[in-house]
Amino acid sequence: MLQGHSVVVAGDHQRGAAHPGSAWGSARSPASDDAAIRSITEARCPGASGVTSACWSWMTCGPGPESDCPHQAAGGDVCIPGAGATGAEGERGDMNYYCDRCGYEMYYSGAMSQAGMPCRACRIGRYRHGQQPAGFSTDAEHRPVPRGLPVPAFAPLHQGTVRTPDYFNYFAGEMGRPYQELLRRHTTYVGKLTNILIQDPKQFAWLTPYTGNKHNRAFFTQLLLARVARAKFADNQGVLPRLIEPFVGSGQVFLNACRWSTAFNHGMPLFTSVVGGDLNHYVIGVYRGMQQIGAKFTGLYRTWSFVWDQDMPGNYQRLLHDLNTGGRAAMLNHTADPKGARLAACKYIWLVNRCTRGTKLAPNGGLVANLKPDAVARALDIRRRETRTLAALLDVLEQIDFDVEHRDFQVTCASATRQDIVFMDCPFPQFSLEIPGVGEPCPEGFGTTAANTYGTPGGDGPGFQTTIVNTALQLVRQGTTVIMCNFANPGLIIAYANLIGNDLAHAGRRPLIYTYRSPSTRNEAYQLTILPGAGNRQVELCPNDVRDVWLSAGGDDYKANEFFQASPHWTPADNQHQQRFDQAERRRQAAEPTYVFVDDVDDEEDYSDAAGVIDLSELQDGGSVEVDEAEDETMLQDRDEDYVDK
């Protein structure tokens, strides 16, 4: 996620002002570095106590004493094979260095040139001699100090506000009053969280309607993640964390975090890389397809979406049948038949973006979906949105280091180290107002009922919520920072609060637990909870910084309980905003119990498809043709694989 930024993290030998760094993707390899790079070979570092792989960084030296390492003995920052050597390849490295990947910079005065050594901050790039026009350093407490870094313009998007608790059903009736009291005593209620969004919130709406999209586009959510990442960098003593998403879904968290990292972090990167996992074969297939063939994947989808739109009702049922009979097999066989897997992923995108109520994965690995009544009339608008958002998705994927696989969330979490941040946007159970008694052994399961949102019976019920809590407990004990997102059920609030740590008193836990309204209904409340992890003092303190920025963006003063104070007179904008949610709630209540309303009204900028004549012979591996209209004979029947992605 080191997107166009420079990093300067000085070691013990930092001198003077910060030094500039290079941008992602624009690294230089000076000829003067070649000899030093060629001299790097695997060797045993005595400080590694038996580790036989190359000892590249301060993190891999140990557990032996520093004096065991020849480089540490020389007073350097990085353990390097052959430190102290003489000759052309062992000259002292008394000079400035920058990372060719993240731009991390340092001043080094040790015994050997650092050119070609792994970067201490991102652990991906390599050091190069010299300085760049901009970068950032760290102060004595390992907090980043930018110098000369460009910061993109950013303006949060405000929409109509609701300032009174009376309009929310979860505060009404006999159960509403104690529930409100619980939120006010044990959490920080953010009244405007869903009313202030990030700039261009739908730029990554490549899959919509999709559960979990909306609340992760909120300005507060991205602000919270950014400030936690800054604090984690300090707690890591100048090492960038990885962002790990075990429930990555359509990627709204990491995509927006990558896109706006420099705006939130004074021009500096927030993460060294992103790790994602999900049990939805198809979304993983989309990411994999883009990683494999890049823009050819978006061209492939653009062509097929046009063809399938020519008979949308007929093709909708046919493609649903394709995925229900062979979708899972195609995705599991992606190594042997990558083209078949990419075609199945394209079918999935097309079906979801034209469905009426969101989709669920079927037990057979297929899809449960219904065609939206107005999808045929809006086909061109849908394709325009897809063209723009898939291009935005690809743009981010091409600029970050992204490890994503189809895997269980516990497997993804097992890869986390104490230097990482895990963002768990969990599968939500049904919302509940039931408050567990004091001493409830498993509060996360109290009053919890499975919602089966993702099509797996019981998959988000009490047992699964307990597994999530136990996994988070293991992470925070090892020092990993975790951010939990789920319904604000009283049992879940208490369970997550218990994970924050016994070293924080009640007053210290409350600022780490944020609650807010659902972005789509008046019946449900959400929570965002920070679990700092053992030893992360700066993360514990970051809520103060979050509040300052939130207020400067026009947010409510949640510390003063502004949301629960007397509200001014309603404005026409307030009425219009609330009316939309009222209509959505009536639709939800009138539908079957599994109905989930998702506001997917397309208000994207109008982008016209390029005119042209479709020629299926041009569809080579990921190839595409520009399309706008086609004659009836161009419509595909049963043998899609014969024409596409060969």
Report on this structure:
There is one protein chain. This protein has 646 residues and is α/β, with parallel strands linked by helices. The chain folds into three domains: 1-150, no CATH class; 180-279 and 407-565, Rossmann fold, CATH 3.40.50.150; 280-401 and 601-617 and 635-646. The chain is built from 18 helices and 17 strands. It has an eight-stranded mixed β-sheet, with helices on both faces. Strands 2-1-3 form a three-stranded antiparallel β-sheet, with no helix packed on it. A hairpin with a 5-residue loop joins β1 (95-99) and β2 (105-108). α7 (281-293) crosses α8 (295-309) and α13 runs parallel beside α14. The model is unreliable at 3-93 and 593-644 (pLDDT under 50).
Do you know the CATH topology of the largest domain?
Rossmann fold
Round the Cα radius of gyration to an integer and report it: 26 Å
The CATH architecture of the largest domain can be given as 3-Layer(aba) Sandwich
Termini distance? Answer: 32 Å
Largest sheet: 8 strands, mixed
Low-confidence stretches: 3-93, 593-644
Question: Helical content, roughly?
Answer: 25-40%
- 3D shape: globular
With strands numbered from the N-terminus, the spatial order across the biggest sheet is 7-16-17-15-14-9-10-13
Domain count: the total is 3
